[in-house]
Amino acid sequence: MIDPARLEPLADDAWPARERAALGGWRLNASSGHSMRINACWPLGAPDRDVDEAIAAAEAWLQARGLPPRFKLTDGVFAPADLDRRLAVRGYAPTKETLVMLGPTGGQGSDRVVVSTTPDDAFEAVFTATAGDPEDGRERLGTLRRIPAPARFARLDIDGAPAAIGASAISSGFAGIFGMRTAPDHRRKGLARLVLRALLTEAATLGADRAWLQVEADNAAAIALYADEGFEPAYRYRYWAR
């Protein structure tokens, strides 16, 4: 299994916020306020000041950008070790538990899936159609475009129209999987599985031998799909908010 302390910085870099800053080992991310990963403080290492002062500084930084204070605490990684207790005293509580899963790359892709280095109009059409909130969709599309190279974007078409998509970020021998979406009319047809396999096959050619992904802990259907493709639970994280 993977040490979360090794993977979490890669995960932060793979899904880059529009604006980033740091308080020592605490990473500050701000975007438009939708995707929690890019609108929160990641306290991965010791802060550069007294802990309570660091909490206040992180709160002020996020609030100055119109964002509610939010801290992403990963099991066994956040610093200091009593940060959860300190946040609880200030009125914070954990929410939105997320599971990180780890699996192999390689395998057999599908010639039905087109893989490119940028998200084209057809890719973005599926992403937009599956976004419940247009502003949320725009924020996530902007983040997809900021994924550092080498990034890959997979699309599967049916009858000439885009039906399913996914993306990956490659770094330090790992492939992060993002943006897995299927158009409403094409769900439950196994398309997500084909897109995932195409991304994992491509990742192996780019030097990644392991892949990781993040899925909400209560999304049983997605967890079952990923487990069927060889992914296993690695660790969990939660967002602490007031």
TrEMBL record:
Annotated protein name in UniProt: N-acetyltransferase
Record PROSITE patterns: GNAT (PS51186)
GO molecular function, one term: acyltransferase activity, transferring groups other than amino-acyl groups
Domain N-acetyltransferase residue range list: 112-242
PANTHER family the UniProt entry points to: ACETYLTRANSFERASE (PTHR43420)
Gene3D superfamilies: 3.40.630.30
Keywords recorded for this protein, A-Z: Acyltransferase, Transferase
Pfam families: Rv0428c_C (PF24553)
UniProt xrefs under InterPro entries: Acyl_CoA_acyltransferase, GNAT_dom, Rv0428c-like_C, YpeA/RimI_acetyltransf
